[in-house]
Amino acid sequence: MATQDGSEEVIMETEAKPKEAESLGEDVEKGGAEATSHTDAGNSTTQDSNISNGDDTEDKETVDLKIIWNKNKYDLKIPVDSTGAKLKESIHSLTGLPPAMQKVMYKGLLPEDKTLREIKITNGAKIMVVGSTINDVLAVNTPKEVIQQEVKAEENKKEPLCRQKQHRKVLDKGKPDDIMPAIKGTKERLPTVPLSGMYNKSGGKVRLTFKLEQDQLWIGTKGKIIANLLLLAALHHKDADNLNFSSAERTEKVPMGSIKNIVSEPIEGHEDYHMMAFQLGPTEASQYWVYWVPAQFVDAIKDTVLGKWQYF
């Protein structure tokens, strides 16, 4: 019996050990579960942190802007503490217009180094953008070039200007005695002295002075028809040709930027001289004609007054 009891005890102990192992296994499982729980909690904390950061960005004060470029309108929402440079980047994303090609205007040219808050831009503000994409620049001619091409094509269809009756009455007076010498087939820069000795459409003497530092063309006249007196005659419905004008001198200071176009044509029989019109308004009716312009200065006059097209 004792041996049997001892055997039984051995058996019981043997059976007890798996229970302990099971207990240890449960503890391991519990420990693993707790570790997993801690890991999940850590992940949860990280996710919450990321969401919070996103909320911080969304919580930034923003302004809703209306971007106007090339006759198109775009809606843009941007943080109010963004700089002008950052705004240009956003405009680039909307329009494809590179920042370097943009002129952004809001109550004047918008500075790149100041924030929208500092500039006092508010919700609903309209931002004007001027500029051409590189493809646009390469694909089209400049407006003034187009105008000149159209004018030249139209001139080729018409009777030569010097044969038209309105110009013949001036040209038939002949070449002025005190006109500046002309050189056919050459191009020269404008002289440092005024171009003088020419006629205007009324047959009066004209002097052209190019004030480059002031970006002005000074038209000096001495003759019987003066602009203000013509206007006075028109207001009183009188014929200007029948009015008695004095021969007082007058100088008209015309901003070069206001001159829309310049037309010129050689004078038949005197191709070393040109007749030239400065278009001072939107239509040909505003052309101011000058006769006997030395041919070597024609291109220089056009380049100086109309300027070179520049991209920003």
TrEMBL record:
Compositional bias ranges of the Polar residues kind: 36-54
Residue ranges with Basic and acidic residues bias: 14-32
Organism from which the protein derives: Astatotilapia calliptera
Biased composition (Acidic residues): 1-12
Pfam family, one: ubiquitin
Gene3D superfamilies per UniProt: Phosphatidylinositol 3-kinase Catalytic Subunit, Chain A, domain 1 (3.10.20.90)
GO molecular function: cadherin binding; RNA binding
Residue ranges of every copy of the Ubiquitin-like domain listed in the record: 61-130
Domain of life: Eukaryota
CDD domains cross-referenced by the UniProt entry: Ubl_UBFD1 (cd17047)
Disordered: annotated span: 1-58
UniProt signal peptide: none
Protein name in UniProt: Ubiquitin-like domain-containing protein
